[in-house]
Amino acid sequence: MREGKKGSTGASSLKKKEKLKKTKTNQNHNGEDNNSIITKKKNTKKTAKKVQFEKQEKEPLQKKKQQQQQLPTTDSQSESGSESDYEDFSEDDVSEDYELLRQSEDGESESSGEEIHGNHSDSGNDDYHALEDHSNSSESHQGVEESDSSEDEVVPRNTVGDVPLEWYKDEKHIGYDISGQKITIKERQDKLASFLASVDDSKNWRKIYDKYNDEELELTKEETKLIRRLLKGKAPHAEFDPYPDYVDWFKHDDALHPLSNAPEPKRRFIPSTWESKKVVQYVRGIRKGLIKLDEPKEEEQRFYLLWGDDSSAAEQANRLSYIPAPKPKLPGHEESYNPSFEYIPTQEEINSYQLMYDEDSPKFIPKRFTSFRSIPAYENAVKDSFERCMDLYLCPRVRKKRINIDPESLKPKLPSQKDLKPYPATCYLEYKGHKGAVMTISTDASGQWIASGSTDGTVRIWEIESGRCLRIWEIGEAVQYVAWNPVHELPLLAVSAGQDVLILKSGFGNQEDQRKVKELLHVQTPTALDDSDNMASIVSWHQDDKHDGIRLKHFKTVTSVEWHRRGDYLSTVMPADILLFVTFCTIHPMAAFGGKLSGTATTHTHIGSGLSKKLSHRIPFKLHGLPVSSVFHPTRSVFFISTKKNIRVYDLVKQKLIKKLETGLREVSSVAIHPAGDNLIVGSREGKLCWFDMDLSSKPYRVLKCHPKDITNVAFHRSYPLFASSSDDCTAYVFHGMVYSDLNQNPLIVPLEILRGHKTSNGRGVLDCKFHPRQPWLFTAGADSVIRLYCH
Amino acid sequence: MELNIATDDQNEENLRRVQVRFITKLKPPLKVPNTSVAIPSNLTRFGLSSVVNNLLQSVNSEWQSQPFDFLINGELIRMSLEQFLLAKGISAEKILEIEYIKAVVPQKEEGPSLHDDWVSAVDGSNPGFILTGSYDCLGRVWKNAGSCTHILEGHSGALSSIRIINSDGMRDVTVATASKDRTARLWKFDAEEVINHPKKIQAFKILRGHKASVQSIAPKTSGDMVWLFLLNCIFIDVCSGSWDCTINLWRTNKSNAEGDQVSIKKRKVNNQADESQLEAHGAQSSFSKAEAVSTLVGHTQCVSSVVWPEHETIYSASWDHSVRRWDVETGKDLSDIFCGKVLHCIDVGGEGSALIAAGGSDPILRIWDPRKPGTSAPVFQFSSHSSWISACKWHNKSSFHLISASYDGKVMLWDLRTAWPLAVIDSHKDKVLSADWWRGDSIVSGGADSKLCISSGIYIHFQGKSEIIDLHMEEG
User: Fold this and answer.
1) What is the dihedral of CA A306, A310, A311, A313, to 10 degrees?
2) Inter-chain touch A428–B388, beta carbons under 8 Å
3) A506: which chain B residues are within 8 Å (Cβ-Cβ)?
């Protein structure tokens, strides 16, 4: 206890060493002595002490030394310092003396105090045991106090207590002692006297008046030195070394052996079972993807848009496709109780609302009220809210997925029209002269003339380059179809009008050709024809003197006539469930195909001279549906017959069906074959155009829906990659239709041009279209009785 | 001078003015003083014309104003002066030299000569008469508008082309015709006969050999030197193009001509025969028909037009989009020009008689210069027509002027120095099928309205020869 006390007080550091000695001796004493022995010693020495104190008044320094010498003896007594409290009161006079002394030697208050205690204990030596007990308890008590601060240890010599001296400012005493006696203030020297004293006494400047204890103190030299040092900011004691050499009390190198030299336990090396289980679990989790590593933690949004749309926030938050209900319409000015005049409908308007449909009439009719009071209850309140609820409940709210694709990018990449030139585009020439709708046109093989047939019962031949009508035949019946013989040397024209097919000589070509044609067109008596079988009932051959040609009489209306490419054969179509296949063998009977065909034909009829055979026979195939059109294959002995829905392909040599093309159209109107023979276009009455690639499939390769009305005819160009369709909507479309010789490449179809110019007549537009055989020109025959030529 | 322009000044105070000097190659009565004049820059051709007329009037008070055309740097002005200068990037700082020439405009429209059918061919290369061919299978000779002197009878198909082979004055005229009956015929008549009724003439030679309609026939023409030579020549050389894609060269003996004519006449008396019989007769009297000397094969489609401008060279235009130059001696195709369109007509002329003008199945008249190496792009394109071009003809003296006839019913007069037509002759009601120059100052044209129209009074000035023309005009 003591050691701690002395170490803490700066003032007592002077006697550190001495005290250390003391403690040593003290410890020795304590170890040996009994309490009883100590008390005896106390008694003996107290008397001596009293004497010494008196001396101390004069030479405190000396006293101190003496005290220190004596201290070891008194130490044991000081332990029971608390006893003194009791005795202090009994011996007031003595204590006063002590206090003086004490104040003068502030630094040694302790030791002196101890001595005082010693005194006290001397005076009150009634019962040791009780004291001893007490001292023990006080000892602990002191210990607590001492730890607080050094000031507390100073036992006040003044017994007035901790009372402000102001209370006794005007009194002559400064308090009371324990017995209630006034403690009087000593008479103070007046100022003058004190001044004189200070003048006289050179040491007077060292004197300090202690008001509390009412005494004057004189500072010693050491103390003034101490103060000076403090003032300078140095350590108060000169001996104190602020920078002592560092003494390294601890060693820092590792100890050779650990604290415990025991070997590592085995369990430290064996992974724990539950740990390994957990690891396996994690590994599995990672492998399965249940645990994701390195996934950045989604930062929680700290701020959010307070006034933002709920829907987007909700969507972002939980990724649910929550669609908020549409907000009800906010009331406007017209729903005010006192709207402006312009909102209020007049009576007429209100009346007119009643005539309107419920959906159109306004739901709310604005009205004007003078005050809030006069507003009646809203009669539709329940209904409105009910409807709103129904809306919210029943109205399906579906999020529409909108795909953001540039529509341009979806278009197929087509070559530009400029690269596909030439193609017919502009009309420069018109062939006028027909009185009725031009039903059909046909171009001469050389490209010099064009033949046309019209509903006015005439067939005309025009010169293409000048637009001049060169020849007119009056047939008498509306002409259905005109076909120019594809062979240049045979300037023959097949015309179907009503139930007859006329074969006319055009009158062009050189003399030799014309003579041949004349011979060819010579038919003997029709009786020669009906010699054997029923074919005669279908077709009969007659000489037509009026037009100088041959008349083939059919029993039903003939709609279409087609020549074979060699000009030897002619097919006619009667849409009366029977397709007539008329062979017309000319002066060229050498054709292998012709020979074969006639060999297989059921009827052989040689007519006229041996040069030409004129015979006809029905197509030996069963058809399903009404025939519409027929086409010869341009190179092979293949024949196409289109019924209203399908197209059948027959091999004429083997006499069997090769293929059936399913158009998927409602009603086929026309068929045209590509000059290479592998592609077919089909026009339909619903305005659709089908392109068949025969090598690909029996389904159309492309279906072009271009015309709003019936397609009347389709045509391929003989040499240019062009095809066209004409329609009743008064337009003709021109397409680029490139067929590649490379079988892997599909045909390229590019729409090129819409040709307009014809006028509608009786609901019909362009009735026929044909390409010029050599130029990229298109002829169109219109219901407005004009033939137009579109040039590139 | 200043006074004349002062009138313009007052209301065009703030306009820009250009210093110009009018120059001309015309003769003195038409010449203005060689001084520079400041004129407003917004003057058009009409304004310039009035300025020049005023200048001329100041010199000669009895001057009657007439239209002029103006050239700057060899280009005709067809817009306001300011625009022209801006467009051509010509500086208006220095004195501008404007050359003026007489405006080339037909001034007189003579009454149409009516035919029975479409007029498909005209020829005006002889100043004394006009030849026409028609769809009624007849050829006609017209002294002038409305007076037909001869009728060429004998074809069984529409005439497609008619050309004068030689015309030594008005006597002894030889004519070649091509027809759609696949023959070409040669005719001879005396144009100076005075007759009241049109005289019917038979062909003295029938040229057979084409397998399809003969579209065009052209005699061998040459420069003035050879012209004289040709008069004494005993042979007649003709080439013809046809729908059978060939060009046939014909050579007939002139000396036989008389006999031929006689024989046909004889036959004609015997019987009015149809074509086959006529041929049979022809076979019997072999001298009446001529054989093709050679055939130029190369075109793939109808040869629509041929010209034989030089001794050794034939130019042909075809429906196969090409213009070909043939060497007569070897029969080889020397060069091709492809234009992408069907061609109907061709003529060679212009500068150095070397430019090829051709028109076809589009409204563009194209002119090529075959001397330009390595290119087949046309040097000029005139596109004021609105339909197919049926005929084009160079002026035989001027190197700038040519006419074109189109199916849109118009005949246009072109000057190479401007892209706009100098004149548009709109007298036809229907397609114009053929057109030609006549007498150097008139345009004759025949069309699908069965009319032969003559537009005359076109003053074409060309260097060195203007005197002749003017003199000729005074006579006419």
Assistant:
1) 30
2) yes
3) none
pLDDT digits (tens, 9 = 90+) for A117-145: 444 434 444 444 444 444 444 444 444 44
Question: Helix A16-32 crosses helix A60-78 at what angle (to 10 degrees)?
Answer: 30
- Domain spans of chain B, in order of start: 2-102, 108-475
CA A153/CA B116 separation, integer angstroms: 161
Of the options 3.30.420.10, 2.40.110.10, 3.40.630.30, 2.130.10.10, the CATH number for the domain spanning A424-467+667-792: 2.130.10.10
Rounded to a whole number, what is the distance in Å from the CA of B130 to chain A's nearest CA? 22
Options 3.10.20.90, 2.60.40.10, 3.20.20.70, 1.10.3720.10; CATH for B2-102 is 3.10.20.90
CB contact under 8 A, B448 and A466: yes
- A561-579: pLDDT as tens digits: 888 877 777 787 776 654 4
Query: Is the Cβ–Cβ distance between B215 and B199 less than 8 Å?
Result: no
Residue A297: Cβ within 10 Å count: 5
Q: Is A429's CB within 8 Å of B388's CB?
A: yes
Q: Does the structure show a pLDDT above 50 at A534?
A: no
Q: Do B275 and A429 touch (CB under 8 A)?
A: no
What's the rounded Cα separation, in Å, for the pair A301 and B353? 90
Mutate to test the interface with A, among B115, B213, B281, B305 (most CBs of A within 10 A): B213
Return the number of CB contacts < 8 Å for A and B. Answer: 55
Residues 6+ apart with CB under 8 A from B105: B67, B422, B423, B457, B458
Q: Evaluate if residue B462 carries a pLDDT over 90.
A: no
A297-315 pLDDT, tens digit per residue, is 777 777 777 776 655 555 5
The domain defined by B108-475 folds into Methylamine Dehydrogenase; Chain H (2.130.10)
pTM comes to 0.62
pLDDT by residue (tens digit) across A194-242?
788 778 877 777 888 887 777 778 888 888 888 998 999 888 888 888 8
Q: Do A447 and B301 touch (CB under 8 A)?
A: yes
At A452, phi and psi to the nearest 5? -140, 150
Longest dimension (CA), chain A: 193
CB count in 10 Å sphere of residue A480? 20
Tell me the domain boundaries of chain A: 2-157, 194-232, 333-366, 424-467+667-792
B314 touches B328 (CB < 8 A) = yes
Range A425-435 average pLDDT: 88
Give the number of residues written for chain A: 792
Asked if the model's pLDDT at residue A432 lies above 70, the reply is yes
Residues in chain A within 8 Å Cβ distance of B387: 428-429
What length is written for chain B?
Answer: 476
Q: How many CB atoms lie within 10 A of CB A222?
A: 13
pLDDT of the residue at A318: 56
The position carrying tokens 């289980």 is A277
Q: Over pLDDT 90: what percentage of chain A?
A: 5
Give me the sheet containing A458-463, strands edge to edge: A438-443, A449-454, A458-463, A468-474
Taking contacts as CB-CB distances below 8 angstroms, the residues of chain B near A421 are 340
Residues of A in CB contact (< 8 Å) with B are: 421-422, 428-429, 446-448, 465-468, 510-511, 515, 774-775, 777, 791-792
pLDDT digits (tens, 9 = 90+) for B127-175: 888 888 888 888 888 887 778 888 888 888 888 888 887 766 667 788 8
What is the predicted pLDDT for the residue at A121? 39
Which residues in chain B have their CB less than 8 angstroms from residue A510's CB? 182, 211-212
Q: Say whether residue B344 is in contact with chain A using an 8 A CB cutoff.
A: yes
Q: How far apart are CA B320 and CA B339, in angstroms?
A: 9
Whether residues B448 and A448 touch (CB distance < 8 A) is answered with no
Measure B456 CA to nearest chain A CA, in Å.
27
